[in-house]
Amino acid sequence: MTAPAEGAPIAEQPQPREPWDYPRHWIADVLASDGGVVHLRPIVPDDADRVVRFHGGLSERTRYMRYFGPTPTLPPREVARMTTVDYQKRVALVAVLGGDIIAIGLYEGLEFDGKPESAEVAFVVSDDHQGRGLGPILLEHLAGAAAENGFTRFEAEVLSENPNMVAVFRDAGYQLSRSFDGSTVHVEFLIDPTEAMTSVRNARERASEARSVANLLRPSSVAVIGASTDRKKVGNALLANIIAGGFTGPVFPVNGPGTPDDEPPVESDGSARSHGPGPARTTPAQRRGHPRPPSVRGIRAYRTVRDIPDPVDLAVVAVPAATVDDVLDDCLVKGVRTLVVVSSGFGEAGEAGLESERRLVDQVREHGMRLVGPNALGVANNDPDVALNATLAPRIPAAGRVGFFCQSGALGIAILDTAARRQIGLSTFVSAGNRADVSGNDLLQYWDTDTSTDVVLLYLESFGNPRKFSRIARRVSRSKPIVAVKSGKGAMTAARAARSSASSLDDQIAQMVLEQAGVIQVHTISELFDCATVFAYQPIPRGPRTRIIGNSSVLGSLAADTARGGGLEVTDAIDLGAGATEDAFEAAVTDAMADPSVDAVIVVFVPPVAVDADWHARALMAAATTPAADGPKPIVTTFLAVEGIPPGLMRPGPNGLPQAGSIPSYGSPERAANALARLWQYARWRQRPESEIHRPDGTDPESARAFVREAMDVSAGKPAPGDPGGRTLGHVESAMLLRWYGIPIVPFREVSTMHEASAAARDLGFPVAVKATSDMWRGRLDREGARLDLPDATAVVTAFTELADLTGDRVLHVQKMAPKGIGTTIRVRDDPSFGSLISFGLSGRTFDLLGDHGYRAIPLSPLDAAELVDEPRSAPLLAGYAGEPPVSRDALADLLLRISTLVDDIPEVREVLCDPILAAPDGVAVLNALIRVGPVPTRADTGPRRLG
């Protein structure tokens, strides 16, 4: 590590922690490879009895592999040593399920062996849970904890007859160094994250999350908890829909305490009205001691889930909020994998309900399950092998190849009804309600590999883990289009909007970040389905060249204007006349399909008099499938102003439903053109070369991490507003941190006297500038806070005196003059909706006032960086405007990549401001930089895998 320069923070030796004083961010819920949830936390002395029980439950072979010999019991001294650690030199993590330890991992520093940066690592998993991927998960989290405590290397001793343990290290992406000593293998490896390790982590995360959603959408059996005999109640409606949908597995009504009479009724919007988080009311039947009915809708009912004799994969819960806790233990005992909670009265009801919701999530995960909801509409899977409609919606669309995720339950019913009317077939549907656990990210992971889904639709009220969403969406969009409606504050209840980051989301930023990930953002449900129809049934265009064919010049003009506004190139607009025959339409469309200069076709057909529309439809279908076509081309139409797929324009599949090749129709030419423009927007993104995230040369992340840790340990410094644990680094510290990422600041000195100023100027070399350091004097249009091009010591002393008197700053900067260039600015900040965002624009208050900046999510790829440089409306000034020489945009893109890599490597870097950056033809010069460091708001998607 490079030694810190003078003035850098020096951290004191960390003090040992108390037995229960562990970093709380080490607590995590994680997904095993089978999609089940496991709770990770540091070990504490109170775990002694649990450790003894855990050890006693291990097989003789597992004990032998871990302890290199028969160890039937652990001596009390060893138990005390295992459970009492300092969380620095010695760390132990336990995996817990239902209160019992199922795995233990630990590392111990080798300082006394002369290896202060190395630690020995070991872990053991109970026999019943081996094969669930818990070893790699423990290794990830132990490596994360060790890195925080300054370790850089792990070592392990493994029996030669235990190749599975060596495979855990190797398959995690570590570069192993191995040596053999008789019956043991000595393994060493660096724990610094590499691209290979990140790739492995993401692949495992993807598989486990997809598996957890498969457990939800492809259950072999379903229990409806709260299945009332009253047909007006939620539980009864859910059971009826599951039965009517033809679910292929067994369905078990659970009619125990809490139902039917006190179970919430169905509201007009399909949601369940809850009694709230207070005590549950007893029913007359309970008070009279009457037994529950033996069946619901003709199916035998059970008092509790554990009374069901067969396995249960999915439990749909429709009981009052106050009684949901009662069913969790039964579900754990029964081995239920996923809960769908339709009950309301949780986070949407206020602070008390929100606390109940948090407690529910904690309990569900501690029991190893995933949760959809609460306040959910339900889930559906149209695969004939499953045929699951576990929703409150009375009507769901037929089977198709579109996956749909939304949050709002009430809106979900309207969405499903609209999709059915417009003949948009769904593969799967999930309404997550309050999205307390399962989110859109989980569904994206599932749909990515789901062969039944070609198009993804999202209706989002907020982003649970924006960084992860961006990462996953980039990958999924390469093969499947994602169309999203991002709603705002008005779509939520007052309680949810008050705490939702979405209420402050800037639409412009959202659009830029979503486009970066290849997501097509629309603003209304109508637009969502307009796009879904063309994406589901028409091919992607190879280019923007569009021909418009119609029988109305006015309507054709409307289509042309909208098409051009959406980025399409209208090459021709053919008006066939109001009386155009079906033969004329067929000939014109056939010609367009065969013309290599045409990439897409818009057909406007609104006859002024009654005609036989079937003939026109057959003519259009014949032209669309002509053998003369030079390749697949999308066609959209306004066929008699019908929405969806008119019967005559449908290409029926084996089940009689529309399939690829059906021609979508829209109610207006503008909507048809807009949908086609969205299809081209996606095609254009797909045509971009894939640009992988990679590390620029000349970076030293280890030194930078150590420096940031030390900086955060220093109590002095300016506290970050609203973040007592953070601080803003000084100019010298900020410059030092940037240097470790290959970003030099134009040399400067901090001075507090005229003699220091004169000496600094001579040291730097003339000419120099003297600058104020306070925010109010930096960046002023009148430049009153700086004196530039000072040629000698006399001018420097004069400038220092003037600025000190004018600004009152006790410390000024003397800086070497940089080559002239165009002022630009780069900033990284925490966005409440998208996490860390990087922005670029021209420097100055005028551009700030106009909001002329481009935004991207971190991390950036080289292509992202290049596009960001060109994003601001004022970017032409950088390309040689009005005869000026163009600046080096490659140098600006490289600077963006380096700052992005810094923030991606070290999430404790919360804000970076480089302003101004002078861009010139031969490079860039950063004149000033400030960096804020602080605790990471959330560890989600930074470091080891964990659920949000």
Would you write up a description of this structure?
By secondary structure, the protein is of the alpha/beta class. It is 33% helix and 23% strand. The chain contains 27 helices and 38 strands. Strands 1-2-3-4-5-6-8-7 form an eight-stranded mixed sheet, with helices on both faces. The longest helix has 23 residues. The radius of gyration is 32 Å and the shape is flat. The chain starts with 27 loop residues before the first strand and ends in a 15-residue tail after the last strand. The N terminus is likely disordered.
Task: Kindly summarize this structure in a few lines.
The chain is of the alpha/beta class and 948 residues long.
Fold topology:
Blueprint: E1 28-31, E2 37-42, H1 48-56, H2 60-67, H3 76-83, E3 90-97, E4 100-110, E5 115-125, H4 134-148, E6 153-159, H5 163-171, E7 177-181, E8 184-190, H6 195-217, E9 222-225, H7 234-244, E10 251-254, H8 284-288, E11 295-296, E12 299-300, E13 314-317, H9 324-334, E14 338-341, H10 351-366, E15 370-372, E16 378-381, E17 388-391, E18 399-406, H11 409-421, E19 426-431, H12 440-449, E20 455-460, H13 466-477, E21 482-486, H14 494-499, H15 507-516, E22 519-522, H16 525-537, E23 545-550, H17 553-565, E24 569-575, H18 582-594, E25 600-605, H19 613-624, E26 635-639, H20 669-687, H21 701-713, E27 718-720, E28 723-728, H22 731-739, E29 748-751, H23 754-764, E30 768-771, E31 786-790, H24 793-807, E32 812-816, E33 822-831, E34 835-842, H25 845-850, E35 853-857, H26 862-869, H27 889-905, E36 909-920, E37 923-926, E38 929-933
Parallel strand pairs: 5-6, 9-10, 9-13, 13-14, 14-15, 18-19, 18-20, 20-21, 21-22, 23-24, 23-25, 25-26
Antiparallel strand pairs: 1-2, 2-3, 3-4, 4-5, 6-8, 7-8, 11-12, 16-17, 16-19, 27-28, 28-38, 29-32, 30-31, 30-32, 33-34, 33-36, 34-35, 36-37, 36-38
